[in-house]
Specification:
Blueprint: H1 12-15, H2 18-24, E1 30-35, H3 41-54, E2 62-65, H4 69-83, E3 91-93, H5 95-105, E4 117-118, H6 121-135, H7 137-141, H8 148-160, H9 165-172, H10 179-196, E5 199-200, H11 202-215, H12 217-226, E6 229-232, H13 240-249, E7 255-260, H14 275-283, E8 287-292, E9 294-295, H15 300-311, E10 324-325, E11 334-338, H16 341-357, E12 366-370, H17 377-385, E13 390-392, H18 402-415, H19 420-428, H20 435-452, H21 456-459, H22 463-466, H23 474-492, H24 502-511, H25 515-525, H26 539-545, H27 553-562, H28 564-572, H29 576-590, H30 596-606, H31 612-618, E14 625-629, E15 638-643, H32 654-659, H33 663-673, E16 676-685, H34 700-704, E17 711-712
Parallel strand pairs: 1-7, 1-8, 2-3, 2-6, 4-5, 6-7, 9-10, 11-16, 11-17, 12-14, 12-15, 13-14, 15-16
Helix pairs in contact: 2-3, 3-4, 5-11, 6-10, 8-9, 9-10, 11-13, 15-33, 16-17, 18-19, 18-23, 18-30, 19-20, 23-27, 24-25, 27-29, 28-29
This protein binds adenosine-5'-triphosphate (ATP) and magnesium ion (MG).
The site of magnesium ion (MG) has 3 residues, from helix 3.
């Protein structure tokens, strides 16, 4: 038998500082490690597990809870490297994965069979949708009614914050009549339906675990006795349900260690509550507080600036911390205004070039962070054009998101009425119209168009075609076609309604040798008899005869957003506001193009699906630039960090400013800046793109920071 690999003993004293060592070897019943970003909290947790193993605690008596599966995997890997104990022996993972594991073993106690299925988000949606249709069809039917998905989200928030569903429904769906009565009733039915098919959804994994521990004393005792140590990372982002689970699962002998940073709480919108940290010593008796005040990650310059962001907070957190830097001095953080978001993208890419070509960084040392996905699209364009390999942490590129593709399908169809794929994609968005119905509608439309010699878009509203549209879908369908007509008219000129595009018309005229003839034809089309100047007409010329100015691509985009799709988004997506912002940002993007076909050609370039893996393979390794929202970059660190869009309205987002809720945005900005180890560049466009281009001011978070803690830079991007 092969010998078990032996691992050199860990020199805890030399690998940890005094405070970290104190926390790692803590003997107190419970412990709270509270420290700022980059101070080694995660490292402390990892070494704590190694320490416990060295003290003889069996791995199966340790429960390690982290925020993401990726974080859990990385920590278990570190521990395996440090101690040689295979990760399979630990109980480590997210709250959901641990919930699943415990519920499997105790299914009967919560009314499930042990082979219960877990509904993923789509499954749960489909089931809840069915329940809504059966129980309260009127509640979801109207044009301004909440969709099942929106309702589902509202209830999920209530469950995660352990608040009464009636209360949250009333608050969040105040615009939907009787929401506080109907939503709980829907929920009751949905719960019964889940039970009937022996299944549970994601939130159940937490809720049922809580229920089990509360109502089944023997089970609670079993787990309470089993886990000698429970360790929780990123405690500031736990919600009230998760915090309750930690409380219930710890027995009389269990030691709980939580680590966190109240200044980095960025998930309150999903029910996280950093007060869990403040309340920790109340919920967990004999808590010893460990503070780590040394930062190992960032240069003193980056740290000063980050500390300075926090000093502007309105609400002082329960614990104050002052971080000291250990790293050598480096460059100051730079704030770099650029003309607009294209110039910003250009500046980022040229700076990355110098970093890689002259300063010895590799692309994988660099991350570009932003508040919202839409802010990265010009950068994606620039990187694609210059063939710089990049990966996007959340996996979906801006232009590959469903709502962007759905919208682009409308532009495609408006540009080219023969684009069947685009047409089917759009129609499929409407409930009750599947691919087959869409085909039938299109066929009927084409028949009517050729029989009556009218344009397809006009024909699509003909009685004969409407018959093919399921009755419940008819309102939506008509709104959609009217919007497409508006877009098309603006693009090609008004004659679209009367039977020909301007392009076809001018061709016809140009090809007709007999001028009388062409004149006659033209007058047929423009019954009001407007004059025209030339027998060979351009689209513009014809539009002028109609007193119409043809729309730019940006204007066509705007008409589309103002039309059916804008309303549709609100109904279908709980996070419609964010998606709406994405679409609005397309207007600014479209402004760079003179005609729609150029814009569409560029968009087509983006629409090939690539995954992280593809990009790496094409690139022959791991060396890609990383683009990420700040939420997704939590806990990570990079030598070089760019934060783009650092202007009021972009970061903080306009919505947050309007709602006066800036604290979470400020914490998010702090998280962004503290990812940087050596260099931090913050850029912003001085002119906003989109609907109302306006002048932008540098982010208030930067204005509030100590002016000596950063440097403004105006000039060529390569030289900063
Ligand atoms: P965040 O708040 O962003 O989650 P954190 O507090 O969890 O940060 P870590 O990621 O654990 O911080 O550590 C930050 C960096 O500092 C890591 O590269 C880590 O290896 C290093 N580090 C932490 N403590 C020490 C130490 N005592 N000696 C050397 N390096 C350290
Ligand atoms: Mg960490």
């Amino acid at each position: 038998m092969a010998d078990k690999p032996t691992f050199p003993p860990i020199d805890f004293r030399s690998e940890l500082n005094e405070d970290q060592f104190g926390a790692v070897t803590s003997q107190s019943r419970n412990a709270l490690v509270l420290a700022g970003a980059g101070s080694g909290k995660t490292r402390t947790l990892t070494y704590r597990v190694a320490w416990l193993l060295e003290q003889g605690v069996p791995p199966w008596r340790i429960l390690l809870l982290t925020f993401t599966n990726k974080a859990a995997g990385e920590m278990l890997e570190r521990i395996e490297d440090l101690t040689g104990i295979p990760r399979s022996q630990f109980w480590g993972g997210t709250f959901h994965s641990i919930g699943q594991r415990i519920l499997r073993a105790n299914a009967y106690a919560v009314g499930l069979n042990p082979d219960f299925t877990i509904l993923d988000a789509d499954d749960a949606d489909a089931l809840f949708s069915n329940v809504c249709k059966q129980v309260a069809p009127d509640f979801i039917k109207g044009k301004n009614s909440p969709t099942p998905r929106v309702i589902f989200d509202v209830v999920s928030y209530a469950r995660n914050t352990r608040s009464p569903i009636e209360k949250i429904a009333k608050e969040r769906l105040e615009w939907a009549p009787r929401a506080e009565e109907i939503v709980p009733a829907l929920w009751k039915e949905y719960t019964a339906a889940k039970r009937l098919q022996n299944s549970c959804d994601y939130d159940d994994l937490l809720e049922l675990l809580c229920e089990l521990l509360r109502n089944d004393p023997p089970a609670r005792e079993r787990y309470g006795n089993r886990f000698l140590h429970i360790l929780v990372d990123e405690f500031q982002d736990t919600n009230s349900l998760q915090s309750e689970i930690v409380r219930l699962i710890s027995g009389p002998e269990t030691h709980v260690m939580a680590v966190g940073d109240d200044a980095q709480c960025i998930y309150t919108w999903r029910g996280a509550n950093y007060k869990n940290i403040v309340d920790f010593p109340i919920n967990f008796p004999d808590t010893q507080l460990h503070k780590i005040e040394i930062n190992y990650r960032s240069t003193p310059e980056i740290l000063d600036f980050s500390n300075s962001i926090l000093s502007a907070r309105t609400e002082e957190s329960g614990f104050s911390k002052q971080l000291r830097a250990t790293r050598e001095h480096g460059a100051p953080p730079y704030v770099i205004p650029q003309l607009d978001s294209f110039a910003q993208a250009h500046a980022v890419v040229s700076k990355i070039r110098t970093l890689v070509e002259d300063e010895g960084y590799s692309l994988s040392d660099i991350i570009v962070l932003y508040r919202a996905h839409f802010q990265a699209k010009e950068l994606q364009l620039e990187l694609t054009n210059l063939s710089v390999p990049f990966v996007i942490t959340s996996g979906i590129q801006f232009f590959q998101q469903a709502h962007i593709r759905d919208f682009v399908a409308q532009l495609r169809f408006v540009q080219n009425h023969n684009d069947r794929v685009a047409f089917t994609r759009i129609l499929n968005l409407i409930d009750k119209i599947g691919p087959r119905t869409a085909e039938r509608i299109l066929e009927a439309g084409n028949n009517v168009a050729s029989n009556k010699n009218i344009k397809l878009l006009t024909a699509l509203l003909d009685k004969l075609v409407l018959k093919k549209v399921p009755e419940v879908a008819r309102d939506d369908y008509q709104d959609l076609i009217l919007t497409l007509q508006d877009m098309s008219e603006s693009l090609h000129g008004k004659e679209i309604q009367t039977g020909a595009t301007a392009a076809e018309l001018s061709q016809k005229i140009a090809k007709t040798p007999d001028e009388e003839n062409s004149l006659g034809e033209l007058f047929d089309f423009f019954a009001d008899g407007n004059e025209y100047a030339n027998s060979v007409l351009t689209e513009n010329d014809i539009a002028k005869t109609e007193n119409t100015v043809l729309a730019t691509p940006a204007e066509v985009v705007r008409i589309g957003i103002d039309g059916w799709y804008g309303d549709f988004l609100k109904k279908i997506y709980p996070n419609w506001q964010q998606r709406y912002d994405d679409l609005e940002s397309l207007i600014g993007f479209a402004e760079k193009f003179e005609n729609l076909s150029d814009l569409l050609a560029q968009l087509a370039l983006f629409s090939t699906e690539t995954t992280d893996k593809d990009v790496r393979e094409r690139n022959g390794g791991n060396d890609s630039l990383r683009l990420s929202t700040i939420h997704q970059a939590k806990g990570l660190e990079f030598p070089v960090v760019f934060v783009i869009g650092c202007a009021d309205g972009l970061f903080p987002l306009r919505r947050a400013i309007e709602e006066g809720d800036l604290d979470e945005e400020r914490r998010l900005f702090y998280v962004a800046c503290t990812r940087a180890k050596e260099k931090l560049f913050m850029l912003y466009p001085k002119i906003s793109s989109g609907r109302d281009s306006s002048l932008l001011d540098v982010s208030q978070f930067i204005r509030e920071a100590e002016p000596s803690s950063y440097r403004m830079f105006y000039g060529s991007p390569r030289s900063f």
